[in-house]
Specification:
With 201 residues, the chain is an alpha+beta fold. The chain is built from five helices and eight strands; from the N terminus they run E-E-H-H-E-E-E-H-E-H-E-E-H.
Length: 201
C-alpha cells in the first residue's frame, strides 16, 4: 500500500516468522516465559517501560493474554513479538507495534531487550522489521516512538533508523513516582522508503 492510497488496511495478519539477517520475529510463546522473566524482572531493564519488574507468574499471564495477539483487526490493537537470535535460538528481547489510528494511519513502536545482548545492533534490526510491518503490511503513513529523555540508548536506536525528533515534552508524564520528560520521534512512510540502506530485514 502506498502513501497516496489514503486508506489503511481494515485488517492485517502478518506471516510469521519475520526474518531479518540475524533475527526471527515471531509470536511470543509460553516457552519464552523464563527467558523473558530474566530481563523483565530486572529493575534497570524495565525502568523506562510502563510496568514494574515482573515475576514469572506475571510474565506467564501476560503471554497468555496481553501479549498473545498476532494480528491487527482494528485501531488500538497491538502486536507483541519475540525477537529470537537465528543462529543460537536465544530470545534476545521483544518488540511491539501499536495501531494508533485508522483514519490518520498512525502507529507506534516499542521495544525492550535483554541487556546481555546489548551493543550488537539487535534492537535496530528488529525495529526496522517492525517498520516494514507497519508501512508495507498495515499501510501506515506515520510511525512514532515516545522515549524517556534519560533513555539515551533507546533514542539512538530510532535516530539511526532515520526517525526525526519532533518534540521534547518537559515533565509531561508522572511516571513511576517522578516527572518524566518525553522525546517524540516520528518517521513517515515516504521518508522510510527514501532512506539509505541500513539495518533491516
Amino acid at each position: 500500500m502506498t502513501e497516496e492510497s489514503g486508506s489503511p488496511r481494515s485488517a492485517y495478519a502478518p506471516e510469521y516468522p519475520i526474518r531479518t539477517e540475524r533475527l526471527l520475529l515471531r509470536p511470543i510463546a509460553p516457552t519464552d516465559a523464563a527467558a523473558m522473566h530474566a530481563y523483565k524482572s530486572d529493575p534497570d531493564s524495565v525502568r523506562y517501560v510502563p510496568y514494574a519488574p515482573l515475576d514469572l507468574a506475571a510474565v506467564e499471564q501476560r503471554i497468555a493474554t496481553t501479549w498473545a495477539n498476532t494480528r491487527f483487526t482494528q485501531e488500538g490493537d497491538a502486536v507483541c513479538l519475540a525477537v529470537e537470535h537465528r543462529a543460537s535460538g536465544e530470545l534476545v528481547g521483544d518488540v511491539v507495534l501499536f495501531w494508533r489510528s485508522e483514519s490518520d494511519r498512525t502507529g507506534e513502536v516499542g521495544y525492550i531487550f535483554d541487556p546481555r545482548f546489548a551493543g550488537q545492533g539487535f534492537a535496530g534490526e528488529a525495529v526496522a522489521a517492525l517498520l516494514a510491518l507497519g508501512f508495507d503490511g498495515l499501510g501506515l503513513h506515520r510511525i512514532v516512538a515516545r522515549i524517556d529523555e534519560r533513555n539515551i540508548g533507546s533514542a539512538r536506536v530510532v535516530e539511526r533508523l532515520g526517525f526525526r525528533r519532533e518534540a521534547r515534552l518537559v515533565e509531561s508524564e508522572w511516571f513511576k513516582g517522578e516527572w518524566a520528560t518525553l522525546l517524540v520521534y516520528a518517521l513517515l512512510e515516504r521518508e522510510w522508503r527514501e532512506r539509505p540502506a541500513g539495518p533491516g530485514p
